[in-house]
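User: Can you predict the 3D structure for this chain?
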Amino acid sequence: MKTKRSFHLSRLIWTVILFVFFQGCVSLPVSPPGTKPVITDAFINKEKGIYGSVLKIYLKAEDPKGSMFKIFTVVDQVGYGRYFPDTIYVEPPCQHDLKGYLQWNTFSFRAARLPEWTQITIQVSVTDTGGNESNTVVFPFEFVSEAVPESPLPSPFNQGNIPRLGYLNINLVNPFEREDEEHRFRKEP
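Assistant: Here is the predicted structure, written as structure tokens:
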């Protein structure tokens, strides 16, 4: 009798645990087929700058069904290749109309410096909950030794308070420096 009772009790406990677990799982509504977000305006605050510059990538995007979900940023570096994409989730109030900037502090813990004239290409797109991708905007950027002033903001980014959508976390690499974690932290005998 005790075995039967403990079996039913453990079954009840597992049922409650599974119920609580699945109550916490929420799926996003899938966007209807044939619709996708559109980036209508984009701007970068400078096209050249010193290593460690703070870049701001301004975006204005729309989704007719209000289901924008993620902002993807991909960086290609001449002499190195493509970095893993960075993802920023779109907050619920901005899923229909998005206007703001992505901030990227270009200093990297993986590179003490970057050579003069290192060129990168920054590509930004937006996806919705159905995986539909918007048009891609592309920004070239070159690292130089002199400070370059920021360009004035064009319309519609020069009007009102523009919110930061998130920080980009892409750590650049100097392809001419040896990046060997084991060697860097190895103690000599």
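The chain has two helices and ten strands. Strands lie at 38-44, 48-49, 54-62, 68-77, 81-82, 86-89, 97-105, 118-128, 137-143, 164-167.
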